[in-house]
Amino acid sequence: MPLWNRSYIHNIQVTFSEELGMQTSARYPKGYGILGDVVHSHIFQTVALLAMEPPVTLDGEDVRHEKVKVLKSIRKLGSSDVILGHSEADSGSNFKDMENLMPTYFGAVLHIDNARWDGVPFLIKAGRGLKKNRVEIRIQFRRVPGNIYHKDGGGHMQDLVTNELILRDVPDEAILIRINNKIPGLGMNLEASELNLLYKDKYNVDVTDSYEQLLHDVIDGDNHLFMRSDEVEAAWNILSPVLSELDNNNATLEHYEFGSKGPDKAGNLWAKHGVKWLDDL
Prior knowledge:
This is Glucose-6-phosphate 1-dehydrogenase. This protein is of the alpha+beta class. The chain contains seven helices and nine strands, in the order βαααβββββββαααβα. α2 packs across α3, α2 crosses α6 and α3 packs parallel to α6. The longest helix is centred in the C-terminal third of the chain and has 19 residues.
């Protein structure tokens, strides 16, 4: 808890990346594409669970009260904080209906206006037809002031990464801590290293699939992972400016190649907030 605030955390990155494409025109006829598929539900639920204040109890309603408070604290998204992209459903697609393109990529920066997270950008990358499957959260901590290790033993500048806490769901469930570690030897050279807890190595059990967990919760009457009506409304309210642009055909969809890292302009959005996305290296 002492570290879980704006004083120590620089940014938080949420990634939903899939190699597969999708026929958005068939699945989402209203034109919202990946926004209607995973962003307003899966992604915003992830952000809410991560950023919420501690609930009074673990009862489903107490958890959902706190999630709603976070969602209502997130600013509506402006065009300067959003990148929408489109890629064909697969590498051999002949889909050329330019008037009915729907987003298969959503990049955005969320701002949470409350005492804990004011000034901490939550960067979202959700896309299909990208170069790898990955679902994870990265918490990047602030740089240490007065860093005495900015030069190696030879006097050369070292571009050291900041400490990170990584919560990964895909491809392998894991909790990772990324720190700078001295390379063995006589010099004073540092490199980023990961301390890892891989579930498949640590636990000799089958890790429950996400939908298995949801079905179990339905049977058990546990509703804390399900969206309440005011949560749904708050999530759509954040996206309302973007949806309005799509409804009026005023939104610009950046094309990206199937199997790439996504639209090139997304890098400008991350750079504006001083973030270099690890997947883009």
